[in-house]
């Protein structure tokens, strides 16, 4: 509720990304005297996950770019892949062979391990 009120009162919509996240900044690009630069924030479409921000918007959010991707005529190159959020902690997470969470079984021990015993 507080973020909505703050956004309504002090923010202006800059753009949205393909995931439906909405990006805001202070009205008129006003510089915050405490920070020395304008405030920028995102309202996520669904679960708030920082890795759901695409690279172009990430650069704008972190003051690496002055022009938001919604105002650029950027066309991705054919070798660039679309953004995917971080799958860690989900069913799509990478689980290498031998992982206790992997679908397969742990590989057999090769015999190159010798247990330590105190003397």
TrEMBL record:
Q: Where is this region: Disordered?
A: 64-119
Give the InterPro entries listed for this entry.
Answer: NDUFA12
Q: One Pfam family for this entry, by name?
A: NDUFA12
- Protein name per UniProt: NADH:ubiquinone oxidoreductase subunit NDUFA12
């Amino acid at each position: 509720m507080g973020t909505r009120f703050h956004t309504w009162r002090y923010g202006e919509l800059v753009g949205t990304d393909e995931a439906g996240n909405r990006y805001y900044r202070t009205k008129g690009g006003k510089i915050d005297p405490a920070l020395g630069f304008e405030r920028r924030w995102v309202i996520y479409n669904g679960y708030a996950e920082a890795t759901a921000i695409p690279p172009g918007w990430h650069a704008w959010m972190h003051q690496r770019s002055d022009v938001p991707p919604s105002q650029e005529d950027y066309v991705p190159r054919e070798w660039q892949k679309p953004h995917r959020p971080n799958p860690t902690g989900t069913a799509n997470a990478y689980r290498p062979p031998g992982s206790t969470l992997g679908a397969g079984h742990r590989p057999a021990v090769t015999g190159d391990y010798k247990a330590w015993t105190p003397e």
